[in-house]
Amino acid sequence: MDHLTLPSATVRSGRLRFTDPDGAARALALGAFSLAVPDGLDVTPGLDFCRSFHLPSRGPEDRRRGHREHGHPRSKLGYEDRPDQVEQLQLESFLWDDYLPADVAALLRRMKDLTLDTLHGVFDAAGVPEHDRDLVTGGARQDTGLCYTTVNHYRSDLTGRAGIVEHSDSGFITVICTDQPGYEILHEGRWLPVHQPPGHFTVNLGDAFRVLTVKTPRPVTAVYHRVPELHPEPPATDRSSFTVYMGPRYDMMLYQYDTDGVLLPYQGFRDFSVEKAKDLGYAFHSRIEAAHR
Ligand SMILES: [Fe+2]
């Protein structure tokens, strides 16, 4: 089967640089690229946590396990047993220190800084002016937008269902760390496995970017992606992945440039997300929808 190699990029001194001259243009058109894991950043605590968060707790101080039953009362996201192979934990960045093991929270904080630098690099590539970025992100630099992690455990014992069902991400950017192949993107009408170079994250660009730039000279694709049903042969373990996501808050508007480059409100992000979930036939986060009523 054909596969796709994504354009690759690196963040150095806070600046995103693509390896090839046409890398930025390809990344915007695909809605995805590879991002080098910075020197000295150890992703092991995150991958280990993917393998433990769903296991039964060993006591009240145990932050590595027990997240299936935890409840996470301060989160609007939390644990979800999805209809595909994935069970996942989603937590907003302001809760990482309270709910997660210290080494995992520290790793995610570094990935959050990297995600922010990368987001601004993509804004540069797409021609989104500096002075509009606080408005459209809700203040990603000040951490007043929405930033959360998703921690995924792919349950290979569950059969007859996708690994993760096809979708686009709703926000601006998602940085993904995984330990196994499986990620595929829809490219020119065909699903293609993505060849992931070692030592790289995968970056997805999402709906908030697409809506913002669709009428501009450099429109950004919200990449359609999935993971097919996985059944690793023993001794291989279940697939693990975790991500850092940045998007608008649910109480914010999505924005769009018109053909003259004027920035206009487009639609409330919560309404956009609820409509999208309905179109794709899945339930939106019940706690966020409830807050709206
Ligand atoms: Fe996704």
UniProtKB/TrEMBL annotation:
<dbReference type="InterPro" id="IPR050231">
    <property type="entry name" value="Iron_ascorbate_oxido_reductase"/>
</dbReference>
<keyword id="KW-0560">Oxidoreductase</keyword>
<feature type="domain" description="Fe2OG dioxygenase">
    <location>
        <begin position="145"/>
        <end position="248"/>
    </location>
</feature>
<dbReference type="InterPro" id="IPR005123">
    <property type="entry name" value="Oxoglu/Fe-dep_dioxygenase_dom"/>
</dbReference>
<dbReference type="Pfam" id="PF03171">
    <property type="entry name" value="2OG-FeII_Oxy"/>
</dbReference>
<dbReference type="GO" id="GO:0016491">
    <property type="term" value="F:oxidoreductase activity"/>
</dbReference>
<keyword id="KW-0479">Metal-binding</keyword>
<protein>
    <recommendedName>
        <fullName>Fe2OG dioxygenase domain-containing protein</fullName>
    </recommendedName>
</protein>
<comment type="similarity">
    <text>Belongs to the iron/ascorbate-dependent oxidoreductase family.</text>
</comment>
<keyword id="KW-0045">Antibiotic biosynthesis</keyword>
<dbReference type="GO" id="GO:0017000">
    <property type="term" value="P:antibiotic biosynthetic process"/>
</dbReference>
<dbReference type="GO" id="GO:0046872">
    <property type="term" value="F:metal ion binding"/>
</dbReference>
<feature type="compositionally biased region" description="Basic residues">
    <location>
        <begin position="65"/>
        <end position="75"/>
    </location>
</feature>
<dbReference type="InterPro" id="IPR027443">
    <property type="entry name" value="IPNS-like_sf"/>
</dbReference>
<dbReference type="InterPro" id="IPR044861">
    <property type="entry name" value="IPNS-like_FE2OG_OXY"/>
</dbReference>
<comment type="pathway">
    <text>Antibiotic biosynthesis.</text>
</comment>
<feature type="region of interest" description="Disordered">
    <location>
        <begin position="54"/>
        <end position="83"/>
    </location>
</feature>
<keyword id="KW-0408">Iron</keyword>
